[in-house]
Amino acid sequence: MMLTTHVLVGLALAAPVLLVAPELGPAALVGGAVGGAFPDADMYTAHRRTLHFPVYFSALALPTLVIAAAVTTPATVALGVGLLAAAIHCQMDAFGGGLELRPWKGTSERAVYDHYRGHWRSPRRWIRYDGAPEDFLLGVGLGVPLWLVLDGPFDTVVVVALVISAVYAAVRKRLPDLAPFVVSVAPDAVATYLPDEYEDA
After folding, report:
1. pTM over 0.70, yes/no
2. Distance CA 80, CA 83 (A)
3. Residue 114: enclosing H or E segment and its boundaries?
């Protein structure tokens, strides 16, 4: 799924904190957005393996949320919501497509790496690929209510995420055609960080 979808999921997880404890809302929202995005920081270093921990993030999220409920500070709330968002991110990636450059072809059986069990989880393809129409619609379904209830910089984050999502979804199927050009012009120092799939474009 798109990075923007994961950020919107993180914000949606944090939004109820605004109702319960408005003073902790900003910390929860920052934690949710950062946690939702964090696993994809491995985009160019063994994506969905280096920073994707579907079991370990889930195992850490629950006790951290319990601690946040017992010792309620902006830091504990942000960490708890952030770990929950990261855990859900990793689970959601298994519901999407595989890691191939053109995931709509369904040729890869690698969705997200399960470090606990030591193997790749297979893609379920409920959302066929990142940037698919259903991925975009999920983002809109989360983003519109968030935009209505959030204010300040957070509603701006929602609008920016939705605009990026719309553009990415519109061009997603054309992007693999650029891979050979990117590989041909990338300096060696950069080329080592390009996903392996670029070589097979």
Report:
1. yes
2. 5
3. strand 112-114
